[in-house]
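To whoever is covering the structure queue this week,

Two jobs came back overnight. Logging them here so there's a record in the thread.

Job A:
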Amino acid sequence: MFSKKIALSLLGVLGLSANAHAHDFIDVAGFPGWFNDAMKREGALDEPSELSLPELGIKSDVLGELSLADTDTGTWYYTIDIGSDVPMECWVFTEYDGTANSMHGISQMGLESAETLNKKALSGQFNFALDVGVVGTTAYAAYDTLYHLGEGDQKVAGLMKAMAAETNDSLQVCLHNELGYRETFKQAFVAFIQAFDNAKPTNAFYQTAYAWRINGIPVGFSRESYAKDEDGDVVIESSLSMLVPVDANSVARTDSFSNSWSMPDGALINGQQYTIENGVMASTYRIDYKDEKWEVAGKIQNKDIAATLEHSKWLQSEYGNYLSIENLRNSDATRDTFFMWSPDADPTSALEVSLDKTDSSNTFQLNMSLFTFLFEIDDNNAPVSGTIDYGVMKMTLDQMVSIGTPKLP
């Protein structure tokens, strides 16, 4: 559940809608008038066009005039006329690093193309905006870059807008390289992702996605999916994508993916996780229970690790966390204590965790070695909002979408 994702993010530090609040890093009020006039421009998206991608089961209308410009094995490249001089560009990939890393990579590729097209070297780039949100049940991230090409009187300015989402084992990344058209680009992107979200099959009994913010800045999202397998156990899929500003010019990128299995009572069966940081595979882990011991194997920074946990008993799964909240909420007890495997904290040991019920029946506190997390829950015993306060840094979680109930049907 949420606890593993909190640890990773700290260490790395419905329908046609987009629930998000963008954060702009640069106040353009003092910029020249021509720049502000250009930034106010928007296009027209009056006529829809059809997106047909049989390989992924996609056939749906999107906004703007869409054209398939190129295709290769597992990759499709589209342009969309959104009423601007420069078309919007969208890629669909079936092999990719993750939302954060892939979007940043495509954005950098766009800057290189701008250099070539204008025959001017990149002379500056700045973080302009970050955003997160959902389209239907699909989480997305956005990253805008203000850039300069050339020097002196020959210097020109541009705005590279990027948005990305992952749906049904494919990744969609869209760019638009022109000042202004921010809302038009977003509307066209939302419609593009809606086509994939509508075709997304699922047998999950529970899905949820959360927005993560540091000091109010949207820096990423996490997703969880819970399904019942043929043996009656719970299959858990979760992921985290983060873009955290390092300075005014760059962001650190993290994408983490995990799969695990849980017994119906919340006991972990096995699990695996890998993390990509700044375009490089940072770690891969797997945990299995063999001969009454928990065995861990994997790599961190390209170095092999293998360990036997000292703790050989019950480990609680992410699914088990929801059961703990429900049990504590409905009992006279005020605390539950258990062990979890959190590889981002320490892959070679079990982590002791305590869950406290506060005076409010809807507010709980999760205590781990690295932090405490105060959160409110909904009627499904799932966190809807939460805070980790470190004084100068406040990290918050907000539920963007929740489908189903985190309990086996």
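Job B:
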Amino acid sequence: MVNKLILAVDPGKRNGIALFRDELDGELVVNMVMSVDELITWLNTVENGLSAIVYEDFIIAPGKNHGSKGEAMQTIGILKMAANRLRIPITKQRPENRLTGAKWAGEKVPKGHMPDIQSARLHGIFYMRRQGKFTTVLEREKHVSKSG
């Protein structure tokens, strides 16, 4: 049986990428940053193992995104195309969902800009939890205290 993987992406000029095994508390196997072109090449090497794609929604804010070449939108289009071709679910998540993911994972969130790799990882954790595939830090602590 092929190991299935969940791909979580924070799209942008620097795409945050997180790849998890699709199982209960699935191992994080990749957590990195790559350009749109690098993502296309990399996606071709892993796509057959994918079971789901999740990404952070991107909103064009008036007065922001100066000098952008639309990399976030390009990435989202690439992800949608891959999900369609592979016939796997693709889920758009609100940016603030990563903060809930951080609480569930027990991760500290920096003030200011969150690193792209952390954002992707936390979106993956949020998605996995919603699918019943992630045990929160609090749940793990309760289990340890009951068994200890």
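Note for Job B: Residues 5-147 form a domain with the Nucleotidyltransferase; domain 5 fold (CATH 3.30.420.10).

Please reply-all if you pick these up so we don't duplicate work.
Q.
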